[in-house]
Amino acid sequence: MSSHSKNDTTRLILDTAVALLNSHGDAFTMEQLVAQTRLSRATIYRRVGNKETLLRQLANERDLDIEALSQPDIRERILAAARTVFGRYGLLRPTMEQIAEEASVGVATLYRHFGDRASLIAAFVERISPNVVLQQEVLNSSANFEHTLYQMAETFTSFMHEHRDIFRHTISSYEEEISFFHQIRSFQEQNLRLLTQFLQGQMDAGHLKQADPVELSFALVGMILAFTVVRPTFYGVPVTNPAETAKFVVDLFLTGTKA
After folding, report:
1. Range of the domain at 169
2. Is the whole-model pTM more than 0.90?
């Protein structure tokens, strides 16, 4: 991409972010930025970094008073309350009233910041998703293969372990509200695509034997899910060290159990 094209892309991202700030405050999401610019997340993160970095750049280059456009305490309080309520009841059953009560705000405040329950859940899922960390690891082409795989597995393991209460609810109620989960499945598909992209690159580089990278991704994520959600839930064996669990899973994934 030429320098002129890069500048045009960056200007498009910044202009769009300003428009989103004016209409949504800093409650806008990176997904909204992706949709309105029609650029990939990878392109946006390469040009302007994450949302925090983007807001700092806007404050410096466009002379915007970001603080005047934001209400971080209220938004963060709502998302923290949503985390508590979703962990207690799952994603499907809680009402906006329950979340508002947990956050000690009015229901109208929830609707003003998030629009509706589906948008609140989507914002929550995007907020806790590890795909930004995974994106950075995938794009780091100079990193050692096994070290990077360990880091990715530890990211997944820590994420699933930290949110195992929500995963339990999600698994148990998936069939009940399958149409709803199609709305938030895209966030998990992003994580799977990043892992698949990484594994394909490692096969191309000769670090892994040739196989279906999607199947390999499901195999690795499936093992992590078994250790972080299934085993603690159904067998009462907790994860005491996510890094050690991730290393065990990756070693098993890379070498198998055959003598």
Report:
1. 129-255
2. no
